[in-house]
Design a protein that fits this description.
Blueprint: H1 2-5, H2 7-11, H3 25-38, H4 45-53, H5 62-71, H6 87-107, E1 108-109, E2 112-113, H7 114-118, H8 123-135, H9 137-148, E3 160-163, E4 166-169
Antiparallel strand pairs: 1-2, 3-4
Helix pairs in contact: 4-5, 8-9
Length: about 170
């Protein structure tokens, strides 16, 4: 903290009284107090690290720092405030869910996502489609379409991969 805030941080705790070893009594007391309060995070040091990586502009007090450690999620985000949706919010959510469901239905044919099954992104993706075709005839149509479009050879070799919304030739 001293490295981040410099004397602004240390001056928050200085009393002007020094011990025999030259350390300030207030700073020594603050260090012991901070160590005691932060010991509750001994099993979760990543919380302290994340707070230290995103310190506020002004030096925090000990209670503020502890609150920041409690609020940070282990995955790096910050816990959100509780939210209770209004009737309007729920209606918008239903409309959005309906729109997404409609968009997904248009991609599917007989229960499979035809776009996914005809636009392989890797050799592994193609192998999965070929494996699925052995068990499900719907995928056999997809393979035939890919052969006709020059995406896959008749022997099952991947000729083009689908990346960035376009097909690209596979490097030889």
């Amino acid at each position: 903290m001293q490295g981040h805030y410099g004397t602004r941080f240390l001056n928050m705790w200085k009393t002007g009284q020094t011990l025999a070893d030259g350390t300030d009594v207030g700073v020594k007391n603050a260090m012991a107090c901070w160590a005691e309060k932060l010991s509750g995070f001994a099993e979760q040091p990543e919380r302290i690290k994340r707070v230290l990586d995103t310190l506020p502009a002004e030096p925090p007090s000990l209670p503020q720092f502890v609150d920041l450690c409690r609020a940070v999620r282990v995955d790096g985000g910050v816990q959100s405030l509780p939210y209770t949706p209004t009737a309007e919010d729920r209606q918008r959510q239903r409309e959005a869910a309906s729109a997404v469901a409609g968009a997904l239905k248009s991609k599917g044919q007989d229960g499979i996502d035809v776009h996914w099954a005809t636009h392989p992104r890797s050799e592994m993706h193609l192998r999965f489609i070929i494996y699925a075709a052995k068990k499900d005839a719907r995928f056999q149509v997809c393979i035939a379409d890919m052969v006709a479009d020059g995406v896959v050879s008749e022997t099952g070799k991947l000729l083009k991969v689908y990346r960035d919304s376009a097909f690209q030739l596979v490097a030889a």
